[in-house]
From TrEMBL:
It holds the Pfam family FMO-like. It comes from Mytilus edulis. This is Flavin-containing monooxygenase. It is a single-pass membrane protein. The keyword ATP-binding does not apply. Keywords: Endoplasmic reticulum, FAD, Flavoprotein, Lipid metabolism, Membrane, Methylation, Microsome, Monooxygenase, NADP, Oxidoreductase, Phosphoprotein, Transmembrane, Transmembrane helix.
């Protein structure tokens, strides 16, 4: 390893420099936004390409989120696309992850963003610079994976664009250690071939859990899907094959009363298939929580390939005991139980992390958090 080197840049001699951590969809748009505001962006990306979560890896990596092999996006390309860069006409309305990554690559190429990205470079620490009280600047320590060089640079601001699919959340259940089978998180799932002729329990009824349960049906002997509260399951498509999200974002719907929208949502969700009949109906009304999107789960349940089960109570050597005291034997368990908190806690100094914890989420459907200490004027 080479000796640390520090590069100081006088902001009076040039544009303000902004460090951007991550070159996924947020990182790419952050680079473009900085350029539009006449700032100098420097983006640090630990992988060798843009795309973040959508840059598929066959092997799971610690600290990096990834889709699995057969992932298909559940947002239509028109609703997903950036307003200043329409998706290619030949891309599918709901494309596989390869097309999503291709779109981000085209976006970076079109706006010349890659020249501002340092690939194969991971940020190891962010802390206030020595002159922070006077300048508001930040010290960034990073490592180049190719050369193993560790360097330090000073920036006027830092934008963390690493997403929240990085550190998996593994719930605690009694008896997990005595279970003879394999326990893993959906973060590490890639494809169903290794589960051939096995009985698999998937815990979690969110998008990842349902997608994995459906994918497992290709090779698994039996798939169980465990849920604590149920969920509203909706299709990607609406009437006449129109993408559901395109219809949901019309001015007409935004003008209607919320009470009517909740009723209408539940009505059309039950047209997809009856949630009460199959034990999926949640306690909350429609639109009060984020729905789960799946076109295939109803068919897999009707065919018996996926069997819905209540929440896990505890593990045995060969399976699990459920909340209804039913015992089922399984070979493997996959937890699709979400991710832990925002990942930049690992690189921020302690006092900044404490300030971040005091920052509250803005209560929107897609949670937004304001971290005023991260980017300074």
């Amino acid at each position: 390893m080479r000796k640390n080197s520090v590069t100081y840049v006088k902001t009076s001699d040039m544009k303000r420099r902004v460090a951007i951590i991550g070159a996924g969809c947020s990182g790419l748009t952050a680079i473009k936004a900085c350029l539009e505001e006449h700032l100098q962006p420097v983006c640090f990306e630990r992988e060798d390409d843009v795309g973040g979560l959508w840059n598929y890896n066959d092997e799971p990596k610690l600290g990096k989120g990834s889709v699995f092999k057969s992932t298909v996006i559940n947002v239509s390309k028109e609703m997903m696309a950036f307003s200043d860069f329409p998706p290619p006409r030949h891309h599918a309305t709901f494309g596989p992850h390869r097309q999503v990554l291709d779109y981000f690559k085209l976006y970076a190429e079109n706006f010349g963003l890659s020249e501002f990205i340092r690939f194969n470079t991971s940020v190891e620490k962010v802390e206030q610079a020595e002159d922070y009280e006077e300048t508001g600047r930040w010290t960034l320590i990073y490592r180049n994976a190719t050369t193993d060089d560790v360097k330090t640079e000073i920036f006027d601001g830092v934008m963390v664009c690493t997403g929240h699919h990085t550190f998996p959340h593994m719930p605690i259940f009694y008896g997990k250690r005595q279970f003879r089978g394999r326990i893993m998180h959906s973060h590490s799932y890639r494809d169903s071939t290794e589960y051939a002729d096995k009985k698999v329990l998937v815990v979690g009824l969110g998008n990842s859990g349902v997608d994995i349960a459906v994918d497992l049906c290709k090779h698994a002997k039996q798939v169980y899907l465990s849920s604590r509260r149920g969920a509203w399951i909706i299709s990607r498509k609406f009437l006449c094959g129109i993408p559901a999200d395109a219809f949901a974002n019309t001015r007409l719907l935004f003008s209607l009363p919320k009470s009517f929208l909740k009723w209408a949502f539940q009505f059309f969700a039950n047209l997809h298939f009856n949630h009460g009949l199959y034990g999926l109906k949640p306690q909350n009304r429609g639109l009060e929580t984020h729905p789960t999107i799946s076109d295939d789960l109803p068919v897999k349940m009707l065919s018996g390939q996926v069997i819905l089960k209540p929440n896990v109570q505890h593990f045995t050597e060969t399976g699990v005991i459920l909340d209804n005291n039913e015992c089922i034997e399984v070979d493997d368990v996959i937890f699709a139980t979400g991710q832990n908190t925002l990942p930049f806690r690992e690189i921020m100094e302690e006092d900044i992390e404490q300030k971040r914890k005091r920052s509250s989420f803005i209560k929107t459907q897609r949670h937004t958090i304001q971290v005023p200490v991260m980017l300074t004027n």
